[in-house]
Amino acid sequence: QVQLVESGGGLVQAGGSLRLSCAASGRIFSINAMGWYRQAPGKQRELVAFITSGGRTNYADSVKGRFTISRDNAVDNAKNTIYLQMSSLKPEDTAVYYCAAARRDNILYGVDYWGKGTLVTVSS
After folding, report:
1. Going by C-beta distance under 8 Å and a sequence separation of 6 or more, which residues neighbour residue 98?
2. CA–CA separation, 40 and 42 (whole Å)
3. Most C-beta atoms within 10 A of its C-beta, which of 26, 75, 77, 100?
4. Mind listing the pLDDT tens digit for each residue in 47-101?
C-alpha cells in the first residue's frame, strides 16, 4: 500500500502564495505519476496538476502560470514527495487540495491512491 500525507494548507489573502507538500510512503516503487486535485464547496473534484516519473508536468488552464508542481524522488529515504507552489492566489482557488498517485505514468488514466486533503482558503 501507499500512504499520502499532505501539508501546507491554510488561510492566505488574495495575491499571496502557499506551498503544499505531499509525502508518499510505503510501496512507492509502484508509483509513477503524482499530482494534485482540488474540490471546492459544491463542486466536483478537478485536476490541478500532475507530474510524471520523468518530470513532465501538466496543468489545468485555470492555474497555468500561477502554480508549479515539482517532485523529489528520494528513493533512498523510501519517500517520494511532491510540491505545489501556488502564487497569485485567487478566492476561486479556495478548496480542499488532495494529493493523488497513480501506478500509470499519466494520472488521467486513473488515480490509485489519495491523500486525505488539506484546506486552502483564499480571502478577498
Report:
1. 6, 36, 37, 38, 39, 45, 114, 115, 116, 117
2. 6
3. 100
4. 999 999 889 999 999 999 999 999 987 655 556 899 999 999 999 999 999 999 9
